[in-house]
Amino acid sequence: MAKKYIALILAVLLLATVFTSCSSSKKDEPTTAISSAKKNTSIPNDDTTFKLSYTKSDSLNPFEAITQNNQILSQLVFDSLFDIDDNYKANLNIASSYEYTDKTTLKITIKSGLTFSDGSELNSDDVVASFKQATKSPYWGNTLLGISSCHAESSSVVIFKLNEPNNYAHNLLNFPIISTSNDKNGYPVGSGRYYYATESNETVLKAMVKDGFSPHITTIHLENIPSPDSIDNAVNIGNISFAYRDLGKGSSKKMSGNKKLVNINNLVYIGINNKGTITSNSYIRKAISLAVDRETLVKSSYGNFAQPATTVFNPQFELSNTPLFEKKADINAAKQAIAQSGISYLSLNLLVNGDNSDRLTCAKLIKQQLDDVGFKVKLVIAKSYDEYLDLISKEKFDLYLGETKISNDMSLNSFLAKDGTTHYGIDVATSLAAQSYYNYLNGDVELGTFLLDFSGEMPYVPLLYRKGMICFTKAMNGDMQGTYYDCFFNIEDWYFQS
Q1: What's this model's pTM, rounded to 2 decimal places?
Q2: Strand 202-207's sheet: what is its strand order?
Q3: Residue 7 confidence (pLDDT) above 70
Q4: Distances (CA, A) of 329 to 79, 218, 297, 366, 451
Q5: Each residue of 91-112: pLDDT tens digit?
Q6: CA 448 to CA 440: how far, in whole Å?
Q7: Of the candidates 149, 78, 90, which has an alpha carbon nearest to the alpha carbon of residue 114?
Q8: How confident is the model at residue 5 (pLDDT cuts 50, 70, 90)?
Q9: Distances (CA, A) of 33 to 27, 39, 40, 355, 489
Q10: DSSP 226
Q11: Which helix (H) or strand (E) holds 220?
């Protein structure tokens, strides 16, 4: 019996030794692998290779700059209260918290201990000063129309007053925060990842190496390339390393470098004269929406550099869970809506700006799709953008094909407010959709009620949202995660190494 116990103990000890050996082996392997990986992926700092385009004749102050070139650079130099991600969600940056203290008051608390690149303190006075400059700037001014004023309640608290209730007003607070003083070389000062400096009599960007930010690219060189077409070519041949392209006129779609599409909030839509002869009939307006094949427009007119609009908000936005419009045309439903209208004379004109090739192609497709359900559409091609705007402002159209940049809070006021920039053709005073939208903002009705009222009235027809593109030289390594609001999102991971 004792022999059996001894044999059992020996067996247990043997198994324990085996498992200990296995455990030790598995524990040691990752350490060796990590050590080896670190050794093999050591990436030296680079202060010569990375180049960006800028416009030398334009200001580097983000509130004075008018070129896309210099506005893109500002994403590296200046921080904002909030960062906006690819889904239009606002994430805290300089702000540490926010609170709506009533329907039209937004309280922002900023982080303590923040400094600009020159070492000076960043506080609420700088936020207020930046806001006031932003409201007057050509690039940022229109995005802040929903905010009437702001003031510093203390060194760390800023109060924003809103023109009307808006639960997403904090999404508007992504304007740059800049110091009230320039540096010794006259450059504007921010608190971002890089700062402007002079090196060998040239303007460069130098990395602000600090906790949480230690990039491989320590110096960024700036090349004076103001022409958009020249920027495309410079990326293709490697004269600059990286660029954001708007794709508004399509030329950049032919770029041969590496590309990544990014979501932008540019809505292409059909404006409708709700006061017109037949377009005053809501069934006719619904028939127009039903007849349009949004998916085909995206593929054929915009080369898939867009996404169909399936509701009144951008598809990425959190309020877009309930689709109102199909991606594909519903010809039978369109014909049924026409029958319900009681209108037999279906002649329409469609106004489009002939200067934009993508939009002209889109208008021709829309004409064909509307003709397929029984409309007789005449295409009116404006000879210039000024002529196009003049005809719209005088409401001399049945339909027009337009594009507008929607603000980050997804406000529809440009269409549904009497002073909106795209309200032409919509009788805002009598519009059920406009009144319902105001009631929704005020908290008097649910979102679903507004959406039902909108789809019933169809004051305009959302078609698609364009996409932008970041492109970069094939010599660059790293997982490019840039967005429209931060093209350089993870620049600390980028490097040049074969």
Answers
A1: 0.88
A2: 51-54, 219-224, 202-207, 194-199
A3: no
A4: 44, 52, 11, 11, 20
A5: 999 999 999 999 999 999 999 9
A6: 9
A7: 78
A8: very low
A9: 11, 10, 10, 58, 29
A10: -
A11: strand 219-224
